[in-house]
C-alpha cells in the first residue's frame, strides 16, 4: 500500500470501505433478526409465552404486562370403568371432533356467578398473556372436563380439583402460589369476557375434545399416553385415546351447586357431634398441695365475745367533747 501512488491508494481505500460497509450492514441485519426471533420465542413467566410457529393470532401488545405466573400444565386422573353399552369403534378415532356447546341448564344466578369467576381465574392464571384463541382453548379444556365423567360436574369443582392437597392440583395455578398476585384489571376483564362467551355456548373447535394441556417448557408423565389435538400459543392440547376421547364419553350433565371460588382449606376439618350436654369436670387440687397460709382461708371466723366491755378509745382528750351540741 505504501508503494502505491496516491490516486491508486485512494481507490483501494474506497473499495475497502465499500466492502467493509456491506459486511457491517449484513452483520447488523443478522443481529437485528436474531434479537427479534429471541424476543418472539422467549417464554414469559409460567405459561405466558406465545410461539410464533404455532400461534393462530398474535397476542396484544399489552399482554406482556399480564404474564401469568402458572407453569401451564394440567394434572390427570383415573378413568372410570367403561360403560357396558360401549359402542364398537371399528376404526381408530382420527381427526378433530368439536365439543358440543356448553349450557348452564338450570343454574341459579349464584352458580352462574361462581362459574364465571372460577373459569375467569383459570384463564387468567394459566394463559393471561396468550392470544384470545389461546385463552379460548384453555376455557374449552375446563368445560370439556365438566362434561366428562372422570371429573367433577361443576366449573369450580374442575378448576380447583385437588387443591385441598399439598400436591395433586389439576390446574397448576391453584397450588403454586400464583393466586397471591392481584390480577391486572385489563387482563382479568379480557379473561372474564372469554369465560362468559364459553359459558354461553361458544365452542373453540380447534382443540376438539381435549381435556389436558401443557406448555412446551413442561413434559408431563401423561404426555405419551394421550393424543395431541392442537398446539396454540405456548400450549399443547391432548385428549384421551379410545372411547374416553370420543364425543360419546362426554355425557355428564352439569350439576350446578358450584362451591366457593378458590382453593378449599387443606387438611381435615374436625367435626364434633353432641347428642346431649357434656358434663364439665373441674380439677380439684389436693389439700397436701395447697400452700399452708391458704389452707385455712375458707374457715369460719370466731364470733365476737358477748361482754359489754368496749375497747379503750384512742381519741385525744381535747377531741372527746367535739360532738356535743352547742348551747
From TrEMBL:
This is Cell Wall Hydrolase. Residues 129-237 form the Cell wall hydrolase SleB domain. Keywords: Hydrolase. One of its GO terms (molecular function) is hydrolase activity. It comes from Sphingomonas jeddahensis. Signal peptide: none annotated. InterPro entries: Cell_wall_hydrolase_SleB, SleB_dom1. Pfam families: Hydrolase_2 (PF07486). The keyword Cell membrane does not apply. The keyword Hydrolase applies. Residues 315-327 have a biased composition (Basic and acidic residues). Residues 287-327 are annotated as: Disordered. It comes from the Bacteria.
Amino acid at each position: 500500500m505504501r508503494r502505491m501512488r496516491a490516486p491508486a491508494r485512494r481507490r483501494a481505500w474506497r473499495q475497502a470501505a465499500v466492502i467493509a460497509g456491506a459486511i457491517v450492514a449484513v452483520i447488523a441485519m443478522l443481529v437485528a433478526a436474531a434479537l427479534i426471533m429471541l424476543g418472539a420465542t422467549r417464554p414469559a413467566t409460567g405459561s405466558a409465552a406465545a410461539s410464533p410457529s404455532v400461534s393462530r393470532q398474535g397476542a396484544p401488545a399489552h399482554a406482556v404486562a399480564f404474564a401469568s405466573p402458572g407453569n401451564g400444565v394440567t394434572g390427570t386422573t383415573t378413568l372410570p370403568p367403561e360403560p357396558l353399552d360401549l359402542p364398537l369403534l371399528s376404526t381408530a378415532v382420527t381427526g378433530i371432533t368439536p365439543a358440543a356447546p356448553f349450557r348452564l341448564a338450570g343454574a341459579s344466578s349464584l352458580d352462574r356467578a361462581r362459574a364465571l369467576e372460577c373459569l375467569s381465574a383459570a384463564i387468567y392464571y394459566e394463559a393471561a398473556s396468550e392470544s384470545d384463541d389461546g385463552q379460548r382453548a384453555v376455557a374449552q379444556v375446563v368445560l370439556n372436563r365438566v362434561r366428562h365423567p372422570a371429573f367433577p360436574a361443576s366449573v369450580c369443582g374442575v378448576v380447583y380439583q385437588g387443591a385441598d392437597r399439598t400436591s395433586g392440583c389439576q390446574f397448576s395455578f391453584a397450588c403454586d402460589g400464583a393466586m397471591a398476585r392481584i390480577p391486572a384489571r385489563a387482563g382479568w376483564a379480557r379473561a372474564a369476557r372469554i369465560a362468559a362467551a364459553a359459558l354461553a355456548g361458544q365452542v373453540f373447535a380447534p382443540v376438539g375434545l381435549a381435556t389436558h394441556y401443557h406448555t412446551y417448557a413442561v413434559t408431563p408423565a401423561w404426555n405419551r399416553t394421550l393424543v395431541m389435538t392442537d398446539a396454540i400459543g405456548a400450549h399443547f392440547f391432548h385428549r384421551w385415546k379410545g372411547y374416553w376421547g370420543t364425543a360419546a364419553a362426554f355425557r355428564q350433565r352439569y350439576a350446578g351447586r358450584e362451591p366457593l371460588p378458590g382453593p378449599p382449606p387443606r387438611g381435615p376439618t374436625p367435626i364434633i357431634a353432641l347428642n346431649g350436654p357434656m358434663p364439665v369436670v373441674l380439677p380439684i387440687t389436693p389439700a397436701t398441695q395447697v400452700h399452708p397460709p391458704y389452707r385455712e382461708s375458707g374457715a369460719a371466723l370466731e364470733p365476737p365475745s358477748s361482754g359489754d366491755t368496749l375497747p379503750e378509745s384512742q381519741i385525744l382528750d381535747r377531741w372527746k367533747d367535739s360532738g356535743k351540741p352547742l348551747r
